[in-house]
């Protein structure tokens, strides 16, 4: 059985301004922020169970350049055709790049990214792959009814 590990990170304004030490996205020159630490802690363990070490990584709740369109399921590597990052270090690199290029906004909608991963999982009909989605967020959910429906589906 192949494990497919996917990451989704909350880029909403409720996380605070990344230039401020109180933000979960704070970019300190001395230590990793809370999101990066959580991603690294889980990712370093789970990556050993994923043979290809290619991890789709998404963000949600941000305004994207160049037009400022809000997205709730955008690839961190900016490649809509292939959202994979190589190993957990690749996910961290894409996360830090994205943090410098998007505008934190909102609302915090979980359903779009859950549905995105579910569509990928639905393509595998022989039971040979197991999908795990790690969502790193501050806990505020704006689309609770849709999120419940997405999880149930």
Helix content: 25-40%
Continuous helix count: 4
What oligomeric state best describes the polypeptide chains here? Answer: single chain
Mean pLDDT: 93
- Using only CA atoms, what is the Rg? 15 Å
What are the secondary-structure elements, in order, as H or E?
A: EHEEEEEHEHEH
How many strands, which pairing sense, and closed or not: the largest β-sheet?
5 strands, mixed
Tell me what portion of residues adopts beta-strand conformation: 15-25%
* N- and C-termini, Cα separation: 22 Å
What's the number of extended β-strand segments?
8
Low-pLDDT segments, ≥5 res: none
Shape: globular
Structural class: alpha/beta
Characterize the structure shown:
By secondary structure, this protein is of the alpha/beta class. Helix content is 32%, strand content 24%. It has 4 helices and 8 strands; from the N terminus they run βαβββββαβαβα. Strands 1, 2, 5, 6 and 8 form a 5-stranded mixed β-sheet that branches. A 3-stranded antiparallel β-sheet has the order 4-3-7, covered by helices on one side. Strand 1, helix 1 and strand 2 form a beta-alpha-beta unit. Helix 1 (34-46) runs antiparallel to helix 2 (87-101). The longest helix is centred in the middle third of the chain and has 15 residues, at 87-101. The chain is globular, with a radius of gyration of 15 Å. The two termini are 22 Å apart. The mean pLDDT is 93.
